[in-house]
Amino acid sequence: MTPTTDELSITGIECFAHHGVFDHERRDGQRFVIDLTLGLDTRLAAETDDLNNTVDYGTLVAQVKTAVETDPVDLVETLADRVARVCLSGRRVEWVQVTVHKPEAPIEAPFNDVALSIRRDAKEHP
């Protein structure tokens, strides 16, 4: 497969989950916001106008929300990798960039956001 520069972005996916290292994070939960950018070849979808030839982003968002909102973990790094694996499970996705925002992170200072971005390639995660 020839790598492509086509990108599909889905930003601001809001989830409520119980991730974190502190007891109150696990008990009370908090908001997480997920941004995705998927690398894929959209030419066949454009030619055929057929959803089967691209990524169904409605289904993908539902899968990502489920992955974020279940099975709590300590680290946003673990969560980001989990989301990347969900995205790469689609046969058309060549690479993904995932950003996990934790805007209510337990930090003892004024701040706007905590965000971790990772990029994973399908070749590395078959």
From TrEMBL:
Pfam families: FolB (PF02152). SUPFAM superfamilies: Tetrahydrobiopterin biosynthesis enzymes-like. Keywords: Folate biosynthesis, Lyase. One of its GO terms (molecular function) is dihydroneopterin aldolase activity. Pathway: Cofactor biosynthesis; tetrahydrofolate biosynthesis; 2-amino-4-hydroxy-6-hydroxymethyl-7,8-dihydropteridine diphosphate from 7,8-dihydroneopterin triphosphate: step 3/4. It comes from the Bacteria. Residues 8-120 form the Dihydroneopterin aldolase/epimerase domain. Its EC number is 4.1.2.25. SMART domains: FolB (SM00905). It catalyses: 7,8-dihydroneopterin = 6-hydroxymethyl-7,8-dihydropterin + glycolaldehyde. Catalyzes the conversion of 7,8-dihydroneopterin to 6-hydroxymethyl-7,8-dihydropterin. Belongs to the DHNA family. This is 7,8-dihydroneopterin aldolase. It comes from Nocardioides aestuarii.
